């Protein structure tokens, strides 16, 4: 198989896991291509002896499978580079929680044996697309986790008029609004009170950040519905964060959010069950009194 590898260039302490990964791939006689930044980090900064069949920049690569070694942030960056290529992504977790990158370093050898024998599954995850007239946001308008609208330069709340398929929903007076996919429902949205959604539920959640009114709650809608946002701010601008990458927008910028025309393929071990991940990663249902 041919693997394209992306990695976290800020985790020098975890470099032993990367070295082990390359040893496993060499043993399987896999073809390896690497993101140039990650290769230079390992070889120039960490002085590791790493072999790559070739290096690539940006999204100029092809592969049978992409490997992301790092945390969920690294996985999101890899997914952005994969884009519409349809290449499945395997996430090896050397970060903290690891919902997307959920293969532990201890599981690598067994996982690659399973991949070599074809015993793995691929889950398709929905992606959000942001449409607006801001050229900076249109350079990379796709989000696997969430698109968030947030206040900037002021302690004052922003006002977010929200419509769904053209029908008025609500005007949120809040610090912000998070629109998340099921994949992103365990990320930012969850931290501000949003629900957990099963990955293949074909839904999107709209979650307010610190709303002024306690009557405002998260709402779950179909993912083939279109969301339109008009923002007002005392500072006349606001932030838009797409999977954590933020840009400043003028308050005259109307935002339209819809499901993208492609999905991200995530590699999972054959025995993977989402509810097991909830219990192991989030201590779901754990009783601290025991």
TrEMBL record:
Required cofactor(s): a divalent metal cation
GO terms (BP aspect): NAD+ metabolic process; NADP+ biosynthetic process
GO molecular function: ATP binding; metal ion binding; NAD binding; NAD+ kinase activity
InterPro entries with a match to the protein in the record: ATP-NAD_kinase_N, ATP-NAD_kinase_PpnK-typ_C, NAD/diacylglycerol_kinase_sf, NADK
Primary residence: cytoplasm
Annotated family: Belongs to the NAD kinase family.
Protein name: NAD kinase
Gene: nadK
């Amino acid at each position: 198989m041919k693997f394209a590898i992306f990695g976290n260039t800020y985790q020098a302490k975890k470099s032993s896991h990367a070295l082990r990964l390359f040893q496993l791939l060499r043993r399987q006689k896999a073809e390896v291509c690497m993101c140039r930044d990650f290769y230079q980090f390992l070889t120039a900064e960490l002085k590791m002896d790493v072999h790559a069949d070739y290096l690539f920049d940006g999204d100029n690569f092809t592969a049978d499978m992409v490997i992301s070694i790092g945390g969920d942030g690294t996985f999101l960056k890899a997914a952005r580079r994969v884009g519409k290529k349809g290449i499945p992504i395997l996430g090896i977790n050397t970060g903290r929680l690891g919902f997307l990158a959920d293969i532990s370093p201890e599981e690598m050898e067994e996982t690659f044996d399973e991949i070599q024998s074809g015993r793995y599954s691929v889950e398709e995850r929905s992606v959000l697309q942001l449409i607006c007239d801001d050229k900076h946001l249109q350079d990379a308008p796709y989000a696997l986790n969430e698109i968030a609208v947030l206040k900037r330069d002021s302690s004052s709340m922003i006002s977010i008029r929200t419509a769904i398929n053209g029908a008025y929903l609500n005007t949120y007076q809040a610090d912000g609004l998070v629109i998340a996919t099921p994949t992103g429902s365990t990320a930012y949205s969850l931290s501000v009170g949003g629900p957990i959604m099963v990955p293949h539920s074909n839904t999107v959640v709209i979650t307010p950040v610190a709303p002024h009114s306690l009557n405002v709650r998260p709402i779950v809608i179909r993912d083939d519905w279109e969301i339109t946002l008009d923002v007002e701010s005392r500072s006349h601008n606001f932030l838009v964060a797409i999977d954590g990458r933020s840009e400043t927008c003028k308050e005259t910028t109307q935002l339209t959010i819809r499901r993208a025309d492609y999905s991200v393929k995530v590699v999972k071990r054959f025995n993977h069950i989402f509810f097991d991940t909830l219990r192991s990663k989030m201590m779901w249902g754990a009783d601290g009194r025991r």
